C-alpha cells in the first residue's frame, strides 16, 4: 500500500488537478474589492475571459458553483410557465431539467439513451411543430460529464435557424470550456454556462454566464424572480471593474493565472492536447476489450471517457480498488449508470505521463478487480502518445 | 512614498486580513468531493461550525457570497407576496429590503436614522397591530457594516415573544459572526445569515444559513421558487458529508483551519479582543474630537467603527490620502453616508499593534487631509490597549 | 508537445518531488531564531531526526548543501596530513576524495569499476597492513547516486572490527537516508553525512552530520581549521534549541513536516516502498532488454536505477527527447559514465502511478531515440506493482 | 492577551518580514539543477544581483548562512598566519575576529566602545606603521547589527589608499545590503559578505561574496584549506548557469522575486525609505527621553536602532513583556550589551504603519516594564512620517 506517498491522481472529470501556479495565486492576501487594485484585476480578467468563451460580449462571473450559473441562465431569460426543450443526454442534463421544473418552467425533455448527444433532428421536428413559437429556449449540455458525450452545438444551432425559431439557445459548457473547442458567438449561443473547476483548472467556487445580445434583451422582460443572479447590476458594476456584492477575490486571482496559462499554451494547442489524450484513452479502452460509453464517434469527448463494463462487474468496486491501491480517484457512474460505468477524466492541467500513470492504474485496477482485460490496452495508448 | 513596501493594511470591515494558516490551507490540492476524504472534512467542519453560530442545529454552507445566503434565507422560508418587517438600520439593511422586494415579498421597512439599531419598541407596536399574523418574518441586520451599529437581537426576540407572534426571525450576522457575541439558539433566531470574509477570517466565497426547527418546518410550505439555494438536498447530502453539487472545496479547507484558530483562541476571548479593540478605537475617535456614527453606546460595534466627519470635509479624500500615503484601505461611506463617513474595520485576524498602526495611519491621514484633530486620539487608544 | 501542461516529472535521483505539505511549511513566515517558538521547533525536530538516522546521539543540521556536510565530517575529525581510505564507487565518491585531498588529507583510493559498492575484502587487506594504525578514517558512500549501487555498510564495519582497527567510519547517506534502511548506531558509523533534498523530500539547503561518541572524542584533537562547520558551538547551542548563527528557519519548518510524514508512513514502510519501486524499475529495464549498471544484486539501490546503454547510443539524447516530449527530467551519466548511462530516480515522495508514468516516459523516449527496446518492459514493471 | 491573533511583528534586525511574494516563490516545486530551466534562472539572478552590490564583477551565492560567507571571504583570499586588521565595533565584528583566529590568521583588533564605527584614523596609523606590508587584509563590518552603527566605508577606503597599502578590504554587509547605500566597486571593496535574511527580504539560508579582480587574483595564491567555499569551481560553473553542487534552488526562486521587488521600488527609494524610518525611530527614542546607542550621527544606521537603557532597567524584561503582551520580537542586547540594550529592526519589507505599530508597542512595553518614558516619543515619530 503506497497510498500515502506521492501525489494523488485526481482523474475524476472535475474538479481537475489545480496547477501550483493557480494554487499560489489564490493564496495571495485578499484585497479591498472596492479599491483601484481590484478594479484593475477585474477589468483585466473579464477581458481575458472572452476569447475562452469565443465571445466579444460580456461574461458574468459568479462567486458560486456551476449549478448556480445554470440557475442564472434560466432566471435571467425566462418567465414562470415558459416552455423549454431539453435533451436527456445524461445525468447532468436531467438535473438541469429538474432545476428548470423546480423554478416553474415547463420542460419538453427529449428522451435519450445516455450514449448520444442532443439530437438535432428531434429538435428540428419539435421546433417545426411549434408554429406559435411557444418554446422560449433550448437547453443543451455541450459535454455531458456523466457520459463523455459531446453534443454537436453547431448542428443544434442549424436546426433552430432552419426552423427560423426565436427560441434562445442555452448551453452548459461545465466540463468542456477550456478543454474542447467552443464558440459562443460563432455558434449563436445565447447563454453559455460554465464553471471554474474543469478546463479552467481552478478549484470550484466560480461560475460563468456568457451572454448574447439576444439574451440581454430577453432579460429585460423575463419575470422569474431573481436578485443574486440578476445580470444587470453585475454588468453595470463590471464596467468599472467592480461587483454589486463581495466577489470571490482569491478565486479571481486564480482565474487570472489560469487564463494566462491558457494564453501561454494557446487555446488551439489546449484543445489538440485534450483530443490527443482522449484518443489515447479510447485506444486503451478498446485495447482492453472494453466499451466506450459514447456510441457515436463524432461525439467522443475530449475531456473524459466513460468506460462501460459488462453487467457481471461492479464499476464501483473497480474504483474502490484503484483508490485504495493506487491513490487515484475516478468518476463514478451517475444516475442510471451507477455501477455500470466508471469515468476517466483527462482534462485540465494534464500531460502524457500523467495519462500513462492514469491508464496504468486503471489497467492494474481492472485486473485486480477481476475484470477480464487484454493487457494490450496500455501499449495501444502509448502508441498514440508516442506517435504525436 | 512607501506604499509598495511592507504589508498592506486591509482595515475595511471585511474582507479582513486572512491569516497565513488559512491562505496555506486553501492552497492545498483540490480533492474528489465525492470521496471518503472529502466526507471526513465536511462532517468535521459542519460540526465545528455549530458552536460559532451558537446552535445545535445544522448549518448550511453555500459556495457563494453572503448576498446569496440572504436570498437563501428568504426563498427557503417565504412565499410570494408574504409580508415581512425590516429595519432601516443602514445601507445593507436597505439592500436586503430591496432583495426581498425583488423576490416578490412585501416589506414593511421601519424607518431609521442609520445611527441606531433595530428598534424593539417599533417592532412591538407593529406586531401588536398585526392581529391576523400576516407578518411572516422579521429581518434584522445584527451588525450593520455600513454604520458600526449592533442591533440588540435579544430585545428583538423579546418583542416577538411578548407579542406572541409566530413570525420568523431572520438575522444577518455577515459582519458579526466570529467577532461579536451571537447565539442562534439562545436568542431564538430562525435563520442566521453569515459569510466567510469577516470574523471567519477567510477570503470571500462561502456563506451560511443556520436554521431553527421552526424555519425547517416553514421551508416545507414556502413557495418562492428555489433550486440552488434549497436547503433540503443540501441537508440530506450533508448527513453523509456530501453536497448535491460541487462544493467550494478549497475554501472549505480554509474554513476548517479558521475554525481551529477560533477554537484555539476561544470564542469568549475572540469576542473580548474585538470589544477591547473597538473601545480603543472609539477612545481614539473621541480623543481626536471626532464623532462616532453609532449614537447609542449599547449598540457600539465590536467589529468596526464608523467615523462621522463634519460637513466641511470629504471622507473619501481622507481615505484616498491614507491609501496613497500609508497603503491602508478603509471603508467608504455607503449610500446616504457617502463622503460623510469613513469606516475602520478592527475585526478578524487582528491584534494590538496592527490596531496601533491603523490608528496612527488614520490620525496622520486626517491631519494630511486638513481635518482638525486633537493628537490626543492615538495616546488615548494606547492607554486602553496598555491597560489590558 | 505537451510539455507545458500538467506536472513536471522530476525523476532525477534528487532533488526529489517536494510534497505540497513541505512546500507549504517552508512558506510560513520566518520567526525570531532566538525566541521561544524557535527553540520549541528546534528541540522537537532534533529529536525526531534521530530515528531517521538510527541513532540516539545528536545530529547536527547545517544551513548548507550536502557537500558542506562532507566537509564538516572531515574537518571536525581529522588533522592535516591524516591518511584516510576511500573507495572508487563512482562520481560522488571521487568528488569526496578530491575534497579530502584539497583539505590536506592523504587518500588511499581503492580502485573500482563504478558498478560495485565498497569492497569489504579490499578494506580488510589494507587495514591488516596498517599495523601502525596510521589510517585515521574510512570514507564510504552508502548509496552512490551516480551508479545506483548501495554499499554494504555492515560488512565494511565488520572488516574494521575484525582488523581491530581504530579508524573512524565516515558514511555518506546523501541519497539513501529516508529511502534505504540505514542504522548509524547499529552499524557503528562514526559520522553520517546526509542532506535534505532526497529521501527527506525537502528542497536543497540543509545537510546533516550524525555523530558517534568516538567521533565527538576525535573532534577534540582534530586540527584541520574549522569555524563554520565546527560541531562544538552548534551542539552547545542546540541543547537549548538554538544555533550559534542564523539557521535556515524556513527549511527547518519543512524538515519538521517531512519528518512527520515519514513517521506517519512508518520508516519500514518507506523502505519497503522504495525496494518495491526499485524492483519494478529493474523489471522494466530487464524487460526492455537493457542492462542495469549495478552489477551485484546484493547492491541494487532502492533509490535510483542507472541504465547502461550500448556504446552505439547516446544516453543524453534519450534524456533530451524525454525532457522535450514528456516533460520529465532524468539523471545524466556523470564522470566517466557520461553519455553511457541515464539514471531514473524513484525515491522520496513517490508512488506506483508516478512510477508507471515515469517508466512509460522512459520506454517511449527510448523508442523515439531509436534505442532498440522490447515493449515488454513496462508490463513487467506493472506486474511487480500489481502483485504488491 | 492578544498574542495569538493577527500578525506577529518581527522587528528584530533580521531575519526580517518575508514578503508573501517571496514566500510563494520559495514554495514552487524544486527543479533539476542541471537542466536548462535552472540555468536560465541562475544566469538571470546572478545578473540582477550585481547592481544590489554596486558591482559589475561576479557575485558568488552560497547555499549557506551568512557566517559561511564570512569564512569564504577569508579562506579564499588569505593564507595561514596572515595578519589582518579588524575593528571592535560590536558583537559581530568580535565574532568575525574570532573566526579569523580559529582559521589561523593573526588579527590586530582595533579596540572600540561599541558605540562608534571603524575608525579611519586608527586604521591610517596602523597601515602607516606597516611599512613591510605584512597586513594582508582589513576586515570591517559595514552595519554592526549589534549596535546600529554604520561604519563609513569610503573613509576606510581612503585611509588605505592614502597609505598606498596593498591590503585587501573585506566588508561585512550582512545587515546593510539592500537597506543602506552600498557600493562595492566605487568604494574599492575587495570582498563583500552578505546574506539573504535582512535587506534582501528572504528567509535565512543564502549568503554572498562579491569579489573584486584584486581578490580574485589573491585567491590564486591563498593557502587556507578550502573546498566547499572555493570560489573557483563556483565561478566556472556559474558561467553556464550551474553549480558544482546542488544549490538551494527554492531559496534562489525567492531571491529572484526579492530582486524584482527591489528593482520595482528602486534602490534609491529603498535606501531613502530606510533612512526615513530610522529617523522616525530615533525621533521616538529621543522623544521618550532615552538614548540611541550609536554615538556619532554620521554613523546612524538605516536598518536598526539600538536603544540604551539606564543601568536601573533590564532591557530583556522590556523585550519579554513586549513579546508576551504585543506579540512583537525585538533584538536582544548581545555580548557586553546584554540587558542594557534592545534593538528595533526597521529594515526589509516594511512601511510606515508597521513602524507606527512597532513604536507603539515599544512605548507601551517600556511603560508596562516601569521604564520612565515621555509619551512624546510616538508623536515625534509620526511627525517625521507625516512630513514625508
From TrEMBL, chains A, B, C, D:
<keyword id="KW-0032">Aminotransferase</keyword>
<dbReference type="InterPro" id="IPR015421">
    <property type="entry name" value="PyrdxlP-dep_Trfase_major"/>
</dbReference>
<dbReference type="InterPro" id="IPR000192">
    <property type="entry name" value="Aminotrans_V_dom"/>
</dbReference>
<keyword id="KW-0663">Pyridoxal phosphate</keyword>
<feature type="domain" description="Aminotransferase class V">
    <location>
        <begin position="14"/>
        <end position="288"/>
    </location>
</feature>
<feature type="binding site">
    <location>
        <position position="343"/>
    </location>
    <ligand>
        <name>substrate</name>
    </ligand>
</feature>
<comment type="function">
    <text>Soluble hydrogenase catalyzes both production and consumption of hydrogen from suitable artificial electron donors or acceptors. This subunit catalyzes the tritium-exchange activity.</text>
</comment>
<dbReference type="InterPro" id="IPR024169">
    <property type="entry name" value="SP_NH2Trfase/AEP_transaminase"/>
</dbReference>
<feature type="modified residue" description="N6-(pyridoxal phosphate)lysine">
    <location>
        <position position="198"/>
    </location>
</feature>
<dbReference type="GO" id="GO:0008453">
    <property type="term" value="F:alanine-glyoxylate transaminase activity"/>
</dbReference>
<dbReference type="Pfam" id="PF00266">
    <property type="entry name" value="Aminotran_5"/>
</dbReference>
<comment type="subunit">
    <text>Heterodimer of a large and a small subunit.</text>
</comment>
<comment type="similarity">
    <text>Belongs to the class-V pyridoxal-phosphate-dependent aminotransferase family.</text>
</comment>
<dbReference type="GO" id="GO:0019265">
    <property type="term" value="P:glycine biosynthetic process, by transamination of glyoxylate"/>
</dbReference>
<dbReference type="GO" id="GO:0004760">
    <property type="term" value="F:L-serine-pyruvate transaminase activity"/>
</dbReference>
<dbReference type="InterPro" id="IPR015422">
    <property type="entry name" value="PyrdxlP-dep_Trfase_small"/>
</dbReference>
<keyword id="KW-0808">Transferase</keyword>
<protein>
    <recommendedName>
        <fullName>Tritium exchange subunit</fullName>
    </recommendedName>
</protein>
<dbReference type="InterPro" id="IPR015424">
    <property type="entry name" value="PyrdxlP-dep_Trfase"/>
</dbReference>
Amino acid at each position: 500500500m503506497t497510498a500515502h506517498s506521492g501525489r494523488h491522481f485526481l482523474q475524476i472529470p472535475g474538479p481537475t488537478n489545480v496547477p501550483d501556479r493557480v494554487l499560489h495565486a489564490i493564496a495571495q492576501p485578499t484585497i479591498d474589492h472596492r479599491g483601484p487594485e481590484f478594479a484593475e484585476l477585474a477589468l483585466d480578467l473579464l477581458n481575458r475571459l472572452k476569447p475562452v468563451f469565443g465571445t466579444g460580449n460580456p461574461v458574468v462571473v459568479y462567486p458560486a458553483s456551476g449549478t448556480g450559473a445554470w440557475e442564472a441562465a434560466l432566471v435571467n431569460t425566462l418567465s414562470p410557465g415558459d416552455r423549454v426543450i431539453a435533451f436527456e443526454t445524461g445525468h447532468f442534463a436531467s438535473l438541469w431539467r429538474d432545476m428548470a421544473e423546480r423554478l416553474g418552467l415547463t420542460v419538453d425533455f427529449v428522451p435519450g439513451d445516455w450514449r448520444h448527444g442532443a439530437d438535432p433532428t428531434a429538435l428540428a421536428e419539435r421546433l417545426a411543430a411549434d408554429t406559435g413559437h411557444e418554446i422560449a429556449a433550448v437547453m443543451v449540455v455541450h459535454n455531458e460529464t456523466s457520459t463523455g458525450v459531446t453534443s454537436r452545438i453547431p448542428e443544434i444551432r442549424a436546426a433552430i435557424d432552419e426552423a427560423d425559431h426565436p427560441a434562445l439557445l442555452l448551453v452548459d459548457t461545465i466540463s468542456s470550456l477550456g478543454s474542447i473547442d467552443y464558440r459562443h458567438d460563432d455558434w449563436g449561443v445565447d447563454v453559455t454556462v460554465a464553471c471554474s473547476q474543469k478546463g479552467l483548472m481552478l478549484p470550484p467556487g466560480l461560475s460563468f454566464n456568457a451572454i448574447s445580445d439576444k439574451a440581454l434583451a430577453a432579460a429585460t422582460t423575463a419575470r422569474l424572480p431573481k436578485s443574486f443572479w440578476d445580470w444587470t447590476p453585475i454588468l453595470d458594476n463590471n464596467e468599472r471593474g467592480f461587483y454589486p456584492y463581495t466577489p470571490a477575490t482569491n478565486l479571481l486571482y486564480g482565474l487570472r493565472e489560469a487564463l494566462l496559462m491558457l494564453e501561454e499554451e494557446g487555446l488551439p494547442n489546449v484543445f489538440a492536447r485534450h483530443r490527443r489524450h482522449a484518443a489515447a484513452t479510447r485506444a486503451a479502452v478498446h485495447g482492453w476489450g472494453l466499451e466506450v460509453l459514447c456510441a457515436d464517434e463524432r461525439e467522443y469527448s475530449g475531456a473524459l471517457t466513460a468506460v462501460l463494463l459488462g453487467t457481471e462487474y461492479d464499476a464501483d468496486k473497480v474504483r474502490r480498488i484503484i483508490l485504495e491501491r493506487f491513490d487515484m480517484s475516478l468518476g463514478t457512474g451517475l444516475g442510471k449508470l451507477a455501477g455500470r460505468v466508471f469515468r476517466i477524466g483527462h482534462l485540465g492541467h494534464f500531460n502524457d505521463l500523467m495519462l500513462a500513470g492514469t491508464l496504468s492504474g486503471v489497467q492494474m485496477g481492472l485486473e485486480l478487480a477481476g475484470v477480464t482485460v487484454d493487457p494490450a490496452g496500455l501499449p495501444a495508448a502509448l502508441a498514440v502518445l508516442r506517435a504525436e
